[in-house]
Design goal:
Length: 343
């Protein structure tokens, strides 16, 4: 269990939620795991849906406490809510701001500030931890460029210029990404980002990691009552969770890229885990994908201290913390959205 900003996260699998007086009771295999007063919470999020009693759902609906059910992997299943007063106002604010280029830019640039900052931190850490394995001068030069770009992003007043600086930062970051691959260089080389389809083993892993991160981000946004399909930087497109793509920008490097690099460098994946189709697309085998997801779920349990909240939480809850902070900003509780800036 984890209480975060008045939200209770039930992360143990196969946990049943029930009501006892004014308390929520968590039960697993007929054993009580915990009993907590419901008046402390605004929302309950359960990973690995087993069930909840009708009495609990009715109690929470009457008191405007949402209950969200996710799969063990974090995919959104359903959300039980009462009167939609808060969510209606929140979403109307989201839609209104998304229609304004000026307001969208103010929000979107904080996503990109977080992304560039985290990329810079990754490069600095590589020069510290592996000074004999990487070109320190090149890494330091790229780091300095990213620092300069952060200043430009902070003053961006249009989405076009913001996308331009984000693209430039990505180009420089990708130039040194291959050096962060320290093992299995013959099978895992990065020569640039290829998406649809991925053309090599590294891009196949990155694409899969980004898909998982996008799903986690979309689930987090739905959980706090935001519309995952209406973004600020990514434009609306049918079937695309644009706000989830916005939210995950600051987590791509520090969350997904580092995860992929760790699997390669620890030799938890090998060349045998991939195959190439006739059109040149490189895909992971079914067994490799299962192992990838298992490792992804394990990674989510690693504990960190959130740089803005100062609270201990697992990596898997970072998208939910950021979604909560975004919702609080849109409600007017925060002066601006605080990006996830890790170091």
């Amino acid at each position: 269990m984890k209480k975060l900003l008045n939200t209770l996260y039930v992360t143990q699998p196969d946990t049943y939620l029930s009501l006892d007086g004014d308390n929520i009771v968590l039960i697993r295999e007929q054993e009580k795991l915990g009993r907590l007063p419901l008046h402390n919470f605004e929302a309950i999020v359960s990973f690995g849906y087993t069930g909840a009693s009708p009495a609990l759902m009715g109690y929470c609906a009457e008191r405007n406490i949402s209950i969200t059910f996710l799969t063990k992997s974090g995919r959104f299943l359903a959300r039980v809510v009462g009167e939609s007063r808060g969510n209606v106002v929140l979403r109307k604010t989201q839609y209104r701001l998304s229609e304004s280029e000026q307001e969208s830019t103010k929000i979107a640039r904080n996503f990109i500030i977080g992304k560039i900052y985290n990329h810079k931190w990754m490069l600095e850490r590589m020069t510290r931890d592996h000074p004999l394995r990487v070109d320190i001068d090149q890494f330091k030069a790229v780091s300095q460029l990213l620092t300069a770009m952060l200043q430009e992003v902070r003053s961006c007043d249009s989405l076009e210029s913001l996308r331009g600086w984000e693209g430039q930062a990505a180009i420089h970051y990708n130039k040194v990404f291959d050096q962060m691959i320290l093992q299995q260089k013959e099978s895992f080389a990065f020569r640039g980002r290829s998406r649809r389809p991925p053309k090599d083993n590294v891009n196949a892993m990155l694409s899969f990691a980004y898909t998982l991160l996008a799903n986690d981000s979309a689930a987090a946004l739905e959980t706090v009552g935001l519309d995952a399909y209406v973004g600020f930087m990514h434009q609306d497109r049918p079937g695309r969770a644009s706000l989830a793509l916005d939210l995950m920008e600051e987590l791509r490097g520090v969350y997904a890229d580092r995860f992929v690099l760790a699997l390669i460098n620890r030799k938890e994946v090998t060349a045998e885990d991939f195959y190439q189709k006739e059109n040149g697309a490189v895909l992971m085998t079914d067994e490799a994908r299962r192992s990838f997801i298992k490792a992804w779920q394990t990674k989510k349990q690693d504990k960190i201290t959130h740089p803005y909240l100062g609270e201990k939480l697992s990596w898997g809850l970072v998208p939910y913390a950021q979604a909560l902070l975004l919702a609080r900003f849109l409600r007017g509780d925060l002066d601006e959205y605080p990006p996830f800036m890790w170091k």
